[in-house]
Design goal:
This protein has 698 residues and is an all-alpha fold. It is built from 30 helices and 4 strands.
Length: 698
């Protein structure tokens, strides 16, 4: 009873916290719109209320050359747009907020079972929060779009309507607003809800006929002249159009060839996507089936603008992977694709540009046609293969680890997920670093402070070293090459080796590097510092970037690439020191340890010789790296782990322990071994039902 009460209290606290987060996000989105001047908020409403908008033009809906919806949408949205004009968008904004909340509540209630009571209580605030963060909802708020309405009508028709007739009416109205929603009629038919399918098609036809009667010329323009709206709207090849048609146009195809290829691809996506949707609907995962059908609609629509892509986010409900450690891959991929621009997810490489430009489309196609979602009949649907965890070794202080729920995993993390998180983390780091400018005057003043401190300590060697290297051309060439070539290569290589050979050590090393980088951002933000090469009147020579125009406050084109005043602490030296320490701690041979120490030695020489950092910048880099290791120890405990019995073969664990500690440990009963010492091969294939035996004393 006491354990149940504790669990309920924790669930209640988590639910309150999540609802608070959802409320904060909702308030933030609403405030971001309403604090804009009337002429700048809800810019897509200018289609209606602008000087040349639909409400101001007495003729056709399409005379404004901006409206791309159906004639029925124009017929029913005119009153809403007029009310938005009269209330300066306030009513429209709060109406959009209400629609998002209702959408989140309906989606949470429609989760495929079985769903635990705890998950059911937490699903609604999580769904609303994800919707608030997604690009389609953010665009709907800021632009004044109505694309949430068809999605909500379909969800209400599938999960809230009583009776097939009312369900069909709601879905039919959604199709009249957005024609590709009509794809849900075959889904309903093939899943046995034939009355709903017929009603939805009939409602769509009736609404379109009503619009044709009220607006005959507009209906002719939309359905015949523009082929169901395919020719409306500017630049269908823009990145905002995440459909197959838009992708083919961006690839340079045009004319009859592009149209023929689009028709063939659209037919294939419809066939495979709807077949999969029917299968998951019959399996009891109706929300997933609805999401997959919506993803098909995104792909085959001539134009699928960013604010029309909520269907892709709903596909997050599908479960993928037999192992518990792989379950987060698909949700994280979808959430990142729907909340971040493609340039943050992938590096700026020419080879990857087609992927960067079509991230959401690729996610929609993958969901509709490729991702192997688990059926509910699978034994792994509810109980995936458990993740192997280890007990932390006994720490020197009783309160370490400070976060006991931060459990140490023995198996490798999912490689794709790891690469994606590293890329996104680096993108966020780059954006924050670029934003932390602080001003030229402050940066130069801090540069003089650093130089004064070094003079007091007698370590102001930068000018002498810089000019000595310039006079020795071989040294200048070597240090310029070293400065520009090894900053990323060496840390990534070490992480790659650890990932393959020592996965638990990889997690420990990666966490310490992440903490060090986050702490460095604080330094960049609060203490902008001009490096020696950008200090006017001091005679430093920039050997890497060439002469800089110090009369220009921006110091040339380099400022547009990166923040030139993010010098304290030096992550060039900090990351190299991290590499050296990792090699010293983990390398099995003495010569490897000595070789690892050469990298930070050459790096500190390079950053000083090229006039890119002060000596104290390197000291700052060393400080954040030390703090990164310290935080990892404080939060997660020692690097050494207690391996549960049965997690690895006894001989392998024993050899690993002997090699590192010189102790003939009894690996069959559980032992303290260095994290990742050959323990990854079988991790994740067994169970972790037995508590680990206390560590063998060293």
């Amino acid at each position: 009873m006491r354990g149940s009460a504790t669990t309920d209290s924790r669930t209640g606290a988590a639910r309150v916290a999540l609802w608070f987060v959802a409320a904060v996000l909702a308030i933030r989105q609403t405030a971001a719109v309403l604090r804009q001047p009337p002429g700048e908020r809800l810019t897509d409403l200018e289609t209606w209320i602008g000087p040349n908008g639909v409400l101001q033009v007495k003729g056709s809906l399409y005379d404004a050359d901006k409206f791309t919806g159906t004639p029925f949408a124009g017929l029913v949205l005119k009153p809403l747009a007029r009310s938005a004009e009269q209330s300066l968008g306030v009513a429209w904004t709060f109406g959009t907020l209400l629609l998002v909340v209702v959408l989140g509540l309906v989606a949470a209630r429609a989760l495929p079972g079985p769903v635990s009571r705890r998950s059911g209580l937490l699903a609604a605030p999580v769904a609303i929060s994800l919707l608030m963060l997604s690009l389609p909802v953010r665009n709907s708020f800021h632009l004044g779009q109505t694309s949430i309405i068809p999605v909500l009508l379909v969800l209400l028709g599938c999960f809230a309507a009583r009776g097939e007739r009312s369900s069909g009416v709601l879905i039919g109205i959604g199709a009249a607003l957005q024609p590709t929603v009509l794809l849900f009629a075959p889904l309903l038919w093939m899943t046995g809800r034939r009355r709903a399918a017929v009603t939805s098609a009939g409602t769509f036809a009736a609404c379109s006929a009503l619009a044709w009667a009220a607006l005959p010329s507009d209906s002719w323009m939309y359905w015949v002249h523009q082929v169901a709206g395919a020719g409306l709207g500017a630049r269908p090849d823009s990145l905002a159009n995440q459909s197959l048609h838009g992708a083919l146009l961006r690839l340079g195809l045009a004319g009859p060839l592009e149209i023929a290829l689009f028709v063939v691809l659209a037919a294939a996506v419809c066939f495979f996507g709807l077949r999969r949707a029917v299968r998951y609907a019959q399996d009891g995962q109706l929300l997933l089936a609805v999401a997959l059908t919506g993803c098909v609609a995104v792909a085959i629509s001539p134009t699928a603008w960013q604010h029309q892509l909520l269907w892709v986010l709903l596909a997050v409900v599908g479960r993928v992977g037999k192992r518990a450690s792989d379950r987060m891959l698909w949700p994280v991929l979808v959430i990142l694709a729907m909340t971040l621009p493609g340039k943050m997810l992938l590096p700026n490489m020419t080879l990857l540009h087609p992927v960067r430009e079509n991230v959401v489309l690729i996610a929609a196609l993958a969901a509709a046609c490729a991702v192997p979602f688990l059926p509910r009949t699978s034994p792994y649907f509810r109980r995936p293969v458990p993740t192997q965890y280890a007990e932390p070794a006994v720490a020197r202080w009783a309160r370490v680890p400070l976060l006991p729920f931060w459990r140490r995993v023995l198996s490798r993390p999912n490689l794709l997920l790891e690469l994606l998180v590293i890329r996104v983390g680096y993108s966020v780091y780059s954006h924050i670093r670029a934003a932390a400018t602080g001003g030229v005057a402050a940066a130069e003043e801090h540069g003089r402070q650093i130089l004064a401190a070094e003079q007091a300590l007698g370590i102001d060697i930068e000018h002498w070293v810089n000019h000595a290297v310039v006079n020795a051309k071989w040294a200048e060439a070597f240090f310029d090459f070293y400065y520009t070539s090894f900053h990323f290569v060496v840390p990534l290589t070490i992480l790659g080796v650890l990932y393959v050979r020592r996965p638990a050590d990889y997690r420990w090393a990666r966490s310490s590097l992440a903490f060090a980088t986050l702490l460095a951002l604080l330094g960049f933000w609060f203490y902008p510092l001009a490096p020696p090469r950008l200090m006017p009147g001091m005679g430093f020579i920039d050997t890497v970037h060439g002469p800089q125009d110090l009369a220009n406050p921006d110091y040339g084109a380099m400022t547009a690439v990166t923040n030139q005043y993010a010098a304290m602490p030096s992550l060039h030296f900090g990351w190299s020191l991290w590499c050296g320490l990792i090699v010293v701690v983990l390398a099995p041979k003495l010569w490897m340890k000595l070789l690892g120490l050469l990298h930070p030695l050459f790096t500190i020489c390079a950053i000083v010789a090229t006039a890119n950092h002060w000596v104290l910048d390197a000291a700052g880099g060393a400080a954040v790296v030390g703090a990164g290791f310290g935080l990892t120890y404080l939060l997660a405990g020692r690097r050494e782990l207690r391996i549960p019995a049965g997690a690895v073969p006894a001989a392998r664990a024993g050899r690993a322990a002997d090699a590192d500690t010189g102790t003939a440990a009894d690996a069959g009963t559980g032992t303290a071994v260095p994290a990742g010492s050959g323990t990854n091969e079988n991790a994740g294939t067994g169970t972790n039902e037995h508590a680990p035996v206390p560590a063998t004393p060293k």
